[in-house]
Amino acid sequence: MSIMDTNSTAGEHLIPHTARIAAATAKGSARDEQSESDAARIILQLEQNHAEANAVGLGSPDLDTFHSLIVSLVAEADDPQAVIAYIAELLSDHAENKAYLPKLIQECERLGLALQLTDDPTVDLPGIRTIDGRRTVVARADEVAVAYDDVHAVGRCLTCSGELDGTALLYFPANALLSFRAVQDMTGADVKICRTCVEASGIPLTAAQRGPEWMLR
Predict the structure, then answer these.
(1) In the chain, how long is the greatest CA-to-CA distance?
(2) What is the pLDDT of residues 107-134, one digit of tens each?
(3) I need a labelling partner for 171 at 20 to 30 A (CA). Which of 115, 189, 200, 212 fits?
């Protein structure tokens, strides 16, 4: 399955963007002596780590560029420690997104959906759109794990996450009011629960779960 992307490749989408890092760590006012000391200490550690990576054969032009970027941000920031903490968070999110991407692709294939990752800030939550005649999951590139959770839930039991069959029932919370509307997944379909989980819960079936035939009787 191919990943459609109107802006850049999927791999590039999963790399923390330098503009975003720079915007979050821009220098505002003159630094104090503590900040200068922190910057010097952090840069020394970065240089040592970079040298060690090169020594064991892990160096590359991309790594050199990334290293230079981080050093420059630390050198210019008012709070060097905050810069490192922010970058560490970005890299952690990047690793999580990269780990979830194959799972998201697999779930889209299960449902016959295409996938498009985007940097568009107007895209808040993952959603399904028709693009070039095909139903497509559109999700933020920095929220792949969120998209996976939403897509994985489609066609699965809310309780056990098992795939549903024809005996599945509409999900209604035990404390639902008469005016309660069924919960829907990202496709617009009503969320359901498998009969095994319903019976295990011991909660009586609602009229909606029993269906129109029972209502008629």
Answers:
(1) 82
(2) 999 999 999 998 888 888 899 999 999 9
(3) 115
* Contacts of 2-6 spanning 24+ positions with Cβ under 8 A: 2/114, 3/105, 3/115, 3/116, 3/117, 4/114, 4/115, 4/116, 4/131, 4/136, 5/116, 5/117, 5/118, 6/116, 6/118
C-alpha separations of 27 from 72, 73, 82, 177 in Å: 11, 9, 12, 53
Strand partners, 140: 118
Q: Which two three-digit tokens encode residue 34?
A: 């503590």
Contacts 24+ apart (CB under 8 A), 71-76: 71/43, 71/46, 71/47, 73/21, 73/22, 73/25, 74/39, 74/42, 74/43, 74/46, 75/39, 75/43, 76/27
